[in-house]
Description:
Layout: H1 5-15, E1 19-23, H2 27-36, E2 40-43, H3 45-53, H4 63-74, E3 81-84, H5 92-104, E4 109-113, H6 132-145, E5 152-157, H7 160-163, H8 165-177, E6 182-185, H9 191-200, E7 205-208, H10 220-225, E8 230-233, H11 236-255, H12 268-275, H13 277-288
Parallel strand pairs: 1-2, 1-8, 2-3, 3-4, 4-5, 5-6, 6-7, 7-8
Helix pairs in contact: 5-6, 8-9
Amino acid sequence: MKQTAGQKFRTAMEQESPLQIVGTINAYCALMAKDAGFRAIYLSGAGVANASFGLPDLGMTTMSDVTEDIRRITAVVDLPLLVDADTGWGHAFCIARTVESFCAAGAAGLHIEDQEAAKRCGHRPNKSIVETPEMVDRIRAAVDGRADPSFVIMARTDALASEGVDAAIERCLAYIDAGADAIFAEALTDADQYRKFTSALPVPVLANMTEFGKTPVMTTNQFADVGIDMVLYPLSAFRAMNAAAENVFRSIRENGGQQQVIDSMQTRDRLYEVLNYHQFEQKLDQILGN
């Protein structure tokens, strides 16, 4: 029997520990991630806002915006896709609808956070979080909204910054009681904090290995030592792509052409290889009788 997307994600966690989950900003990035050997991929809410809409990650995109990018990614790769659902986009029925929409679009799971609706990036100051009962209601609504029981409901907590480790862990225990399958511990600042989370919680814990934030760069071996089950790299490739694009744009503008940067570009042959271009072309020739 064919596995559902949620089952694929759970299988990936069994096959690789910690499971590396790499951010794919669009469908083509998802193809490259698969080619590189990753077992699971991720769609970042910040990535959707930044790349698809040119907006900062301040809760200005919608469930429908994210769902469209889910469809594009899952149409071309069969890797399980974890998706950022921000705060769920509304009350209980809206959150349930988010789960239904993401699942129907091919996602394997989502994470929903305990920030207020006017959210901020998890590594920025002045985050405001809701009371525990409100987040518990969000989790319950998400669980109620999934038709596939294997679809992963992950609870993200941003409580460390304002409430400390122990209070954040207490929140997570309540989220797990409400049905959360896993915990996303956001913006932790050292390995000991991760160890406290993994020691106290009976479900898998995800570490967000985002760059230039509160969390120091750690390896998968270091995360394994503190009991982390999943390591997320939400925008690593996107940041590198942006830096490369800036360099190319400036060089073309300053030098009157791309001569200085052409060696840094992905070749046409490599692009075609990733896209299986020649297979499509051969199929077209068969259809047209060429």
